[in-house]
Predict the structure.
Amino acid sequence: MSGNLYSRFARSFTQFADRILVEEDGKSWTYAEIERKAARLAAQLITLGVEPGERVLVQTDKSVETLILYFAAVRVGAIYLPLNTDYTEAELQYFAADAAPVLAVCRDQNVDLFERIGKGQLTVRTIAQLFASLTDAQAAPVPRGGEDVAAILYTSGTTGKPKGAMLTHHNLVANGDTLIDLWQFTPEDRLIHALPIFHVHGLFVAVHCVVFSGASMVFLSKFESAVAVDLMAGSTVLMGVPTFYIRLLGDEAFTHEAAANMRLFISGSAPLSADIHRAFEGRCGHRVLERYGMTETGMLTSNPYGGERRAGYVGPPLPDVELRIAEFESGKVLEQGEVGIVEVRGPNIFKGYWQMPEKTAAEFRPDGFFITGDMGVIDSDGYVQLVGREKDLIISGGLNVYPAEVEVLLDDRKDVAEAAVIGVPHPDFGEAVVAVIQRSGPFNTDAVRKELRKDLAAFKVPKQIITLDALPRNTMGKIQKKLLRERYSDLFAAD
Ligand code: MCA
Ligand code: AMP
């Protein structure tokens, strides 16, 4: 079972059996306890008809039980498919239809919704139901190869529908092992885990660094700076999106002394500004370690643990990642120092998009390099700096919003002639979603935001909608988003 993800977990379950793996609300679970539960839950999944390669769709609150469900799904060789708890019925309908799961595990209040979506073809359970019906029976791990898919994580696209990135057992094992070495995780580490566990960052980067190294973590349902500061005295690592670091800086309790026991603060998923990086060091003496990754690839670059952690840079490529800069259109590889599209190859790069061979092919070069859509440059020391994105993407608090997804809904409205959705600087979320519209009838901003919320997760709903008599256009008639971004760059300026 070379490259099998469950075998990698099992190594730690055995080696660190009596050590604490996870704490939540004052309770703790050892590695052995978690494995026993996962083995029993695996038996339950098999009873419910989950077979190797089948999708298990999971939209549940963050909890140790959800973590055990992840381990159980991998143990039976299923494909784990976690979804943002904020998604609406319209969004969920798409994922369920596209991935055709055999089992959906959801929150109590969503059972009816999933039953409706599943049209009788889908077994629906809550976490509580799954755990209430456990028996003593345990299922043995199902052999899967490195190339088998362990998880599908959906990622939106510039145009069209979200795509399911298929991550293999080998992808996840390789990236996790590289990261624990690079970031020097040991069984003595205790991670403050305040990220959601439905994305690569919180699920694979955070959980795998802990489990692969025999460390422990404190599970928090969300990030609250006061709670994080309190935990720092007994913890060693925090992983977060830049908003975590911005909020820590806004908290007077976060001081040199508060952070004295911590050995590492890691940031990613969105750009950490050089100003925040410096302010953070000034406040607590730690230089944040910034790294860069994607859902399709896991982690790609990281500032060094021992060497210089450079503000505004995402660091050199990981040891097993090849990274080059190319011309977007032609694919011509550029010289060091030139700005272009970032392309990557390595054991962590995904297998392809679920049932979308054409889309998969379009995002790889013939020699196997994946085209990230990020613009970057490599400096003379091999450090990568990201300078923008070729893709029309907004990253708000570490969550991705594709403008097209919001524009389609606005354009469909009778009171909107045309909409342009842009990202503008925001002091807390880094970027915020803003819609600029040309109206074609009486327009009530609050009512429209409420209506959008019915079809869109809250983080995608524009924080502001600006109405103009006419949208600025170039000579070809195309809306000038760049101009709009400049015009509204101070919309959320901090006082
Ligand atoms: C919540 N809201 C947001 C966001 N989060 N709006 C825009 N952007 C967001 N990210 C909405 C809420 O629904 C609420 O709306 C209002 O904003 C205020 O919410 P607040 O209580 O301040 O939010 P929070 O619960 O404190 O959450 C903010 C957060 C969270 C901590 C930044 O969004 C978060 O944990 N983000 C991390 C996401 C992540 O894990 N990304 C990794 C993706 P209303 O007032 O209308 O109710 S993986 C990835 O990117 C790659 C692989 C990588 O490199 O890591
Ligand atoms: P996702 O689709 O959620 O995996 O988001 C991946 C995208 O997040 C990347 O393509 C980058 O645009 C962005 N990203 C991740 N880490 C960083 C970082 N450290 N700095 C800037 N952008 C980042």
Observations:
- Residues 155, 200, 268-271, 290, 292-295, 314, 372-374, 386, 389, 395, 400 surround adenosine monophosphate (ligand 2) (CB under 6 Å).
- The chain has three domains: 5-176, 223-389, 393-487.
